[in-house]
Amino acid sequence: IANFLFEIGMLKKTPRTGWQFLGSGGESVAEHSFRAAIIAYSLAHLAEGVDPVRALRMSLFHDLPEARTGDLNYLNQKYVTVDEERAVSDMTKNLPFGPEIAELLAEFRAQITPEAVLVKDADNIEMLLQLKEHLDVGNRNAEEWIPFSLRRIQTDAARDLAQRILEG
Fold it and tell me: Which of 41, 92, 93, 97 is 20 to 30 A removed from 2 (C-alpha atoms)?
């Protein structure tokens, strides 16, 4: 468990690489994951048929493999193939709660359950919040990215929240 906790610390040092294209700002994977988890928990209370605690747990771990794989932006993903399943398996194999984390991440990747879909929406809402924050301080490039973020949102609760974010 101690080694796992040290490894999780890497997420604080792992930058989210997409922001370099925007020309301003930056955040670590850990910063993103924290706010995404709070968003998932909040959205789960607005959506019918979603377990808020399961959504929170899934969101908390959704970017865990990036401690080993790094964060790949959309351009990187065209050329690099990541074995996320193997990263998760290796990372969690000696943990007493490892199977639970692996199950949550497999569910997230499959995008079949209401919790997984909502967590993906929370992931996108977190990016939308970042874009709105960049826009509000004068980065006009952020405006071009907002429609792409909005198109990825799948649940009514997240669509409603996204509109409120953009109005604020």
Answer: 41
